[in-house]
């Protein structure tokens, strides 16, 4: 994109974030965020990507507290064992473990799936949570722009490779669930199918991040349509955690980092509050058999209008299949 377009993308992303912060401040002034209550989930298995930090860690801990067998998929080996120990101690749940998975490497994703399937356990919940935010221009091991590769394509491939296990694990009245974490920045995202890598013109990390979050919404809606067409007992929903106080902000504008440091306690959600909508989508009976929803603050919301464009959903799916080496993107081809 042009330098002007890159500047506009940055302004739109920060404007979207500011709007969410104002809404969160008003919510706190009117009583704050009430923690939802969920029933225990014994004998259910969840995979959470990016579960060693931030929202992912809070999600993994909450699911473990509900009695789930939680498998954290992440690329931070050094931190993993301490995280596992902490979750086990705080939840009194020994069924928490870590498997290495670098979402920036298709080889690593396939190795993770192989190791997971070797465990011969079901999979009832897949939480696509991990991501990078506004990093400088750089590529994944497979040569993809990093936001596209890690945030979107990595989860696209992982989900498709685990769909057979999810379908085997779901049953009438007890569907397996795919929960994908997007962001309010998708509202200002623009999907450029002719240049998903952002390689033409001036690179915009803000535009790349927003595009990856927009792609995740389109992916979720398309996935739900394909699953429903097959009569599968698997649902797919997408969640918006809000603006959350995590370590993802190291590459943002210095003014944003300053606001976070000084007023984060007031304006930003805690990681635990940010995880509540993800956990809601993963376990609430209200969403049994229900998919294709965009959820914010544990309620359904409207996503950007273009995300409901079925032709665009299909085009993105087909392109994603080509980029990840999956079978062609014709309806149901990946899901058989």
Categorize the overall geometry. Answer: globular
Tally of strands: 8
Integer average pLDDT: 92
Structural Rg: 19 Å
Q: What's the order of the H and E elements?
A: HEHEHEHEHEHEHHEEH
Describe the largest sheet: 8 strands, mixed
Question: What strand order characterises the main sheet?
Answer: 3-2-1-4-5-6-7-8
Number of helices in the DSSP assignment: 9
Measured by DSSP, the beta-strand proportion falls in 5-15%
Q: Any low-confidence stretches, pLDDT <50, length ≥5?
A: none
Q: In whole angstroms, how far apart are the ends? A: 38 Å
SS content category? alpha/beta
> How much helicity do the residues have?
40-55%
Question: Care to describe what's here?
Answer:
With 336 residues, the chain is of the alpha/beta class. The protein has helices spanning 3-29, 54-65, 77-91, 106-118, 146-169, 205-229, 254-267, 271-283, 310-324; strands at 45-49, 69-74, 96-100, 125-128, 176-181, 234-240, 294-296, 299-301. The protein has an eight-stranded mixed beta sheet with strand order 3-2-1-4-5-6-7-8, with helices on both faces. The protein is globular.
């Amino acid at each position: 994109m042009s330098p002007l377009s890159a500047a506009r993308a940055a302004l739109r992303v920060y404007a979207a974030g500011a709007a969410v912060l104002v809404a969160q401040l008003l919510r706190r002034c009117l009583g704050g965020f009430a923690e939802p209550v969920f029933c225990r989930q014994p004998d259910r298995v969840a995979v959470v990507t990016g579960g060693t930090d931030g929202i992912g860690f809070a999600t993994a801990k909450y699911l473990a507290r509900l009695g789930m067998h939680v498998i954290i998929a992440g690329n931070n080996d050094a931190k993993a064992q301490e995280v596992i120990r902490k979750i086990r101690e705080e939840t009194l749940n020994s069924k928490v473990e870590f498997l290495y998975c670098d979402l920036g490497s298709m080889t690593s994703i396939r190795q993770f799936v192989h190791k997971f399937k070797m465990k011969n356990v079901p999979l009832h919940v897949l939480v696509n949570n991990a991501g990078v935010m506004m990093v400088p221009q750089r590529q994944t091991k497979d040569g993809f722009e990093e936001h596209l590769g890690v945030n979107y394509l990595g989860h696209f491939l992982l989900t498709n490779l685990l769909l057979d296990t999810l379908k085997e694990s779901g049953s009438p009245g007890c569907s397996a669930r795919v929960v994908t974490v997007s962001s309010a920045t998708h509202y200002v995202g623009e999907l450029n199918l002719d240049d998903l890598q952002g390689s033409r013109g001036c690179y915009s990390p803000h535009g790349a991040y927003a595009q990856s979050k927009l792609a995740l919404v389109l992916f979720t809606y398309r996935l739900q349509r394909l699953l429903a067409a097959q009569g599968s007992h698997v649902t797919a929903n997408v969640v918006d955690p809000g603006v959350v106080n995590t370590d993802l902000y190291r590459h943002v504008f210095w003014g944003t980092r300053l606001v976070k440091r000084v007023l984060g306690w007031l304006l930003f959600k805690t990681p635990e509050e940010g995880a509540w909508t993800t956990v809601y989508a993963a376990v609430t009976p209200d969403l049994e058999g229900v998919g294709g929803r965009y959820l914010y603050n544990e309620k359904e919301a409207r996503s950007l209008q273009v995300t409901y464009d079925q032709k665009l959903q299909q085009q993105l799916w087909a392109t994603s299949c080509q980029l990840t080496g999956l079978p062609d993107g014709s309806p149901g081809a990946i899901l058989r």
